[in-house]
Design brief:
The chain has 286 residues and is of the alpha/beta class. It contains nine helices and six strands; from the N terminus they run βαβαβαβααβαβααα.
Length: 286
C-alpha cells in the first residue's frame, strides 16, 4: 500500500504583507460597479497538483505558487485567498476520483493545476507502482554536481538502450489532464494548467517535451482553460541550475522561473474577472 500523505495548506498569512481592501480607498467615479465589486471580493486561488506545487522538497512558502501570488499581491488590487493541496507522489491517473473532495468542494475561483513529475519520468528500475513514491523518496535539496549530471546521462542511456517507458503513458496523462480541466470548467472554475517540467535525464525530458507540445491542443478544445508553458521557460535555462540532484525536482531558481511564467496568465485571468457583471442584488455604496 502506498503511504502517500496529501498535505493541505490554507495560508493567506504566508505573505509578508497581506492585501488589505476596504471601500474607502476606491474612487467610485472612476471605477465601474463590477470592478469595484470584484476588487473587494475574495478571489480564491487553489494550487492542486503533485509534490512540486507545494515546493517539495523545499518549504511551501518558496514554491512557484506562492512566489507568483506574492508578485500578484504587489501588482493587482484583488484580495487573493490562496490554498493548496498536494498529492505528493500520486500518479495523475489516481487523482480524478479525489477531485471533488480535494478541490471542487473548496469552491475556488481559480485552480492552478500541475502534474507530470510522477508520471512522465522514465525510471531505470521499475517499482511496484501504486504511485511514484520510490522515485520521490529521500529527495535531497542539494544542487547537482558534475557526478549527478553524469548519472542523469547514464540513466537516460540505459533507458534508451532498454527502451523503457514512462511511469504513465503520455496519452493517458493527456487524457487525464483534459478530463480534470473539463470538470473544473463545468464547475465554474477557471483552470490554469501548467505544462510538465524539465528533467535532467534526456529520455524523461524528451517525454516531457512531447507531452508539453501536445497538451495545448487538448486544452484548446476547452474554452476558458488557460495553458502555461513552464517547460519552455525552464528549457531556456541550464538544467543544472533548474533541477536538484535527482534531476526531477525543481531548485529554488527553477521555482522562480516557473513563477515568472505563471504570473502573466494569472494576471490576465484576474483582469477578465473584472469584466464580468456584479453579483445579483449588488449595490455600489453611495
Amino acid at each position: 500500500m502506498n503511504n502517500v500523505r496529501p498535505v493541505v495548506w490554507t495560508v493567506p498569512d504566508i505573505f509578508d504583507a497581506p492585501l488589505q481592501k476596504n471601500w474607502t480607498n476606491i474612487n467610485y467615479n472612476q471605477r465601474p460597479a463590477a470592478y469595484v465589486c470584484l476588487l473587494n471580493m475574495d478571489c480564491h486561488i487553489r494550487a492542486f497538483g503533485a509534490c512540486m506545487i507545494g515546493g517539495f522538497p523545499h518549504r511551501p512558502e518558496v514554491s512557484f505558487f506562492y512566489h507568483a501570488l506574492r508578485q500578484l499581491q504587489s501588482e493587482t488590487r484583488h484580495h487573493l485567498v490562496p490554498s493548496l493541496f498536494t498529492f505528493g507522489g500520486f500518479p495523475v491517473t489516481r487523482v480524478p476520483k479525489h477531485l471533488k473532495a480535494r478541490c471542487l468542494d473548496a469552491r475556488p475561483d481559480i485552480v492552478v493545476l500541475q502534474f507530470a513529475s510522477s508520471d512522465l519520468v522514465v525510471p531505470v528500475r521499475r517499482y511496484d507502482h501504486g504511485g511514484s513514491q520510490e522515485i520521490h523518496r529521500n529527495v535531497s535539496a542539494q544542487m547537482p554536481s558534475l557526478a549527478d549530471w553524469c548519472r542523469w546521462q547514464m540513466q537516460a542511456l540505459i533507458g534508451d538502450v532498454r527502451r523503457l517507458p514512462p511511469v504513465t503513458p503520455v496519452e493517458v496523462y493527456l487524457q487525464t489532464m483534459e478530463q480534470m480541466t473539463g470538470t473544473l470548467l463545468e464547475s465554474g472554475i477557471t483552470p490554469v494548467v501548467l505544462s510538465p517540467f524539465v528533467f535532467g535525464a534526456w529520455r524523461s525530458d524528451r517525454v516531457a517535451r512531447f507531452a508539453a507540445g501536445r497538451l495545448p491542443a487538448r486544452l484548446a478544445a476547452l474554452p476558458g482553460a488557460v495553458y502555461v508553458d513552464a517547460y519552455a521557460a525552464l528549457d531556456r535555462q541550464p538544467r543544472r541550475q533548474m533541477l536538484l540532484q535527482d534531476g526531477s525536482h525543481l531548485s529554488l531558481a527553477g521555482h522562480r522561473v516557473v513563477a515568472a511564467a505563471l504570473v502573466p496568465h494569472l494576471k490576465n485571468v484576474l483582469l477578465n474577472r473584472e469584466k464580468v457583471s456584479p453579483p445579483h442584488g449588488f449595490v455600489v455604496p453611495s
